[in-house]
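Structure first, sequence second, as always.
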């Protein structure tokens, strides 16, 4: 009987920075819950993207099409602050330019920084958003250390389970996971700010999401919809889950786009409902090529979906509850589990 080696790291563990050539930095605003997260690829990485939500806020995604000329990107910025938060990408560009990183275009070296944002203006003063200085600071903080998770960076003001209104939602956040199989590493980082519930992919049971009217237990959004309860959620464009899936394998731009597409299966397994009218769900793919060889793309895509689903779960399990002076209370998954005598594991 042939024995196959166990993966070096299972997807419930690990970090995006397990991929060689990747650094991650967060900037978290202390004035209100918001922030941004930067994924740096100083040596460049082949990039792809897949946008599935109906209300995206993005920058420089079109250049990731295989039809277009730019072959590599130097960073990806994920930010809070809705469309205002796209300003943070300018600070990332400045940081990279100062270090001579970018594509040589005539007399200038231009850093390529695709970006996407999520809506977190529900929490605190909506006039406070990530800006260029925030993006620059996130780059300063970047390293190849394990990624900090929970309510940091782009996940600082994130919430999930908004299908029946923000008052019955819970805390979202940042999560990351990785796996290595046959020498190839695939990893994901996500900022979870979904309209839907975060669910256990194995059972479909909600982990965090819409709460009952008294706020004391999980409602189960899909079960409520099937009972005939009407959504009372936010307007379109007021949520969004963002992700970056990365590998050290060698990929073309077309393959990187396929990896991003397949990674969305991880959202579909762990968020329900997903890709709604209120979400701008977007996943970027990065291939650093540090491994020096290509591998089976179907394998990479399957692993990408697995680490993406694991990262979504880790994001809500690492979150901490929030109570604001205006009365808004967003408990974390662990808060409800402790109330019910089932502590988070």
């Amino acid at each position: 009987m042939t024995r196959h080696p166990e993966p070096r790291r299972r997807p419930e563990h690990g970090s995006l920075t397990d991929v060689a050539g990747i650094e991650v930095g967060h900037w978290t605003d202390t004035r209100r819950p918001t922030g941004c997260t930067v994924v740096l690829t100083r040596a460049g990485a082949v990039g792809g993207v897949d946008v599935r939500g109906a209300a995206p806020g993005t920058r420089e995604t079109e250049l990731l099409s295989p039809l277009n000329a730019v072959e590599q990107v130097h960073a990806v910025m994920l930010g809070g602050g809705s469309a205002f938060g796209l300003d943070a990408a300018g600070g990332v560009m400045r940081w990279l330019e100062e270090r001579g990183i970018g594509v040589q275009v005539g007399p200038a070296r231009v850093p390529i920084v695709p970006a996407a944002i999520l809506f977190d203006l529900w929490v605190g003063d909506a006039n406070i958003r990530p800006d260029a200085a925030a993006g620059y600071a996130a780059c300063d903080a970047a390293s190849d250390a394990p990624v900090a998770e929970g309510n940091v960076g782009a996940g600082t003001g994130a919430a999930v389970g908004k299908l029946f209104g923000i008052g019955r939602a819970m805390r979202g956040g940042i999560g990351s996971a990785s796996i290595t199989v046959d020498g190839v590493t695939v990893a994901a980082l996500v900022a979870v700010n979904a309209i839907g519930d975060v669910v256990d992919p194995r059972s479909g049971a909600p982990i965090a999401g819409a709460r009952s009217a008294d706020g004391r237990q999980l409602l189960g959004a899909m079960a409520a919809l099937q009972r005939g309860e009407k959504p009372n959620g936010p307007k379109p464009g007021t949520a969004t889950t963002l992700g970056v899936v990365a590998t050290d394998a060698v990929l073309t731009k077309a393959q990187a786009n396929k990896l991003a597409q397949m990674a969305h299966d991880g959202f579909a397994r762990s968020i329900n409902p997903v890709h709604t009218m209120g979400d701008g769900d977007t996943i970027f793919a990065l291939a650093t090529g540090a491994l020096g060889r290509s591998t089976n793309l179907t394998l990479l895509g399957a692993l990408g979906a697995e680490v993406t689903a694991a990262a979504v779960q880790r994001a809500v399990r690492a979150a901490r509850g929030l109570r604001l002076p205006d009365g808004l209370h967003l408990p974390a998954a662990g808060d409800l589990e402790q109330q019910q005598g089932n502590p988070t594991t």
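Margin note: The CA atoms of residues 199 and 205 lie 5 Å apart.
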